[in-house]
Design a protein that fits this description.
Layout: E1 5-8, E2 12-16, H1 22-38, E3 43-47, H2 62-72, E4 77-82, E5 86-91
Parallel strand pairs: 2-3
Antiparallel strand pairs: 1-2, 3-5, 4-5
Helix pairs in contact: 1-2
Length: 108
């Protein structure tokens, strides 16, 4: 059962990826950055869960895939802070703010 969820308070977007596959999760993060930038949001909080595997073993988890994706450089991301089960991304927001809340439908 998917628990994917998006919350948007007009400044920070929270994307909960529980229930997503690794590929789907990375795609959703990329799209969330794009939509957040367009609507003038400055922060994306990605809830990916804690990884129980060793990153070096390459047992691909959302957390490991996001870490790899960040190392390759993500367009629009100015900073990131990775914690046990959450990663906070600073993003370049457009100067034109759109108060319409971002929903999961916007990311598909």
């Amino acid at each position: 059962m998917s628990r994917l969820r998006v919350r948007d308070n007009g400044e920070t977007v929270e994307l909960d990826l529980h229930g997503a596959s690794v590929r789907e999760a990375i795609s959703l993060v990329d799209r969330a950055i794009e939509v957040s930038r367009e609507r003038g949001r400055s922060t994306l909080r990605v809830i990916h869960g804690s990884s129980t595997s060793d990153r070096m073993s390459r047992n691909q988890t959302i957390k490991h895939a996001l870490e790899d994706h960040l190392e390759q450089g993500m367009r629009g991301v100015t900073s990131h802070y990775m914690m046990e089960d959450v990663t906070i991304l600073g993003i370049v927001a457009s100067s034109a703010s759109n108060p319409t809340p971002i929903t999961l439908l916007d990311l598909h």
